[in-house]
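for the writeup, i need someone to sanity check this before i put it in the appendix. the sequnce is what the collaborator sent (i think, or maybe the updated version? ugh). structure was predicted straight from it, no edits. if anything looks off just tell me and ill rerun, i have time this weekend
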Amino acid sequence: MENAEKKSFWQSGHKPTLFGSFLYFDISFMIWGLLGPLAVVIAGDYPMDPVQKANLVALPILGGSILRLVLGYLADRIGPKLTAQLGMLITLLPLILGWLWVSSLDQLYVVAVLLGIAGASFAAALPLAGQWYPKEHQGLAMGIAGAGNSGTVIATLFANRLAQHFGSWEAVFGLAIIPIALVFIYFSIFAKNSPDRPAPKKLSEYGHVLKQRDAWVFCALYCVTFGGFVGLANYLTIFFNTQYGLSAVQAADITTICVIAGSFFRPVGGYLADRIGGSKMLMMLYAVAALMLLGVSFLPPLPMVVVILFIGMMCLGAGNGSVFQLVPQRFRAEIGLVTGIVGAAGGLGGFALPLILGRLYQATGSYTPGFIILSLIVAASLILTFIMQMKWKRSWLASMPVNVQADSVNV
């Protein structure tokens, strides 16, 4: 055991499984985010009011949030590899339906909900990768597998271009079958469950976690950071098209820039949170994000709003990593359970954000009220974090042995 602990990251774990987890996560996030950029193109075939557009891009996020709990439970019971394989096979259903079946907006809503199975992928991908690695390499392993959220960038960059090239948005759903089929083949051959996979959890353990206040606090914090990131990633193409008159491809390209900021600063947030404390990092990130969203509410010229949204998305992405720097400090023994619950809450935040922007735009004819409300929600999260930080310092330190307090708690 001592020798195993001295192994470097590249000497430990199982690299084909880590790569397979990344690919599964990446392609699944790409599919999960297809309707965000395509909504502007689809509106040409099915005219939609602002609320209907918001519903279209919000439903996959809601589906992902709910189905994450299902896939998380299955990963615990039957193993993350088989769960991931089932997830990929079921993901083919909305792709085939979107390609060959949809002929009305209501049918498209059905496809949108079913796309949630792709969004639930991290409930299997992250445990599959993480269970292979010792504690000292968990952060890097989870970071590499979790970098698959960059799949959203693939969707915003290529979905509308492919729709334009093939003359049909339905063709994009058909084309998406190719990469997920290739990943399924690789994954089935090379990915493996860890021999050290923990025993399945009892349903009573979920109930025990949900009785604890801190679990709900983390849900609220992640609801704002991840929910803000994924909600904006899915809605910004509509925003840029409606507010600034950009074409579908142009609006998606600019959205890509903002999504890159949120995707690639997640590990940075976790790294910095390790250094200065998750609560301090979150408070700084929430403060800047609130100011940026308030800045967007003034609807400044396009170059300025892109810079503001880039910084805001960067803060929300980094905030995702900061939240999960705090979670293990409070829930060491129940980290798997809490990760699933908190992740599902993040999806609910992403579902709510497009609805806030879409409904208020329809009611007022402006995006200003919606972004002001989003800014206030982020500011409220800052206040919650400040209050909880003081309580955590007292309660967490008091509950730990004196000789490990200084090294173990960094809130």
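The chain has 20 helices and no strands. The chain has two domains: 15-189, 201-399.
thx in advance!!
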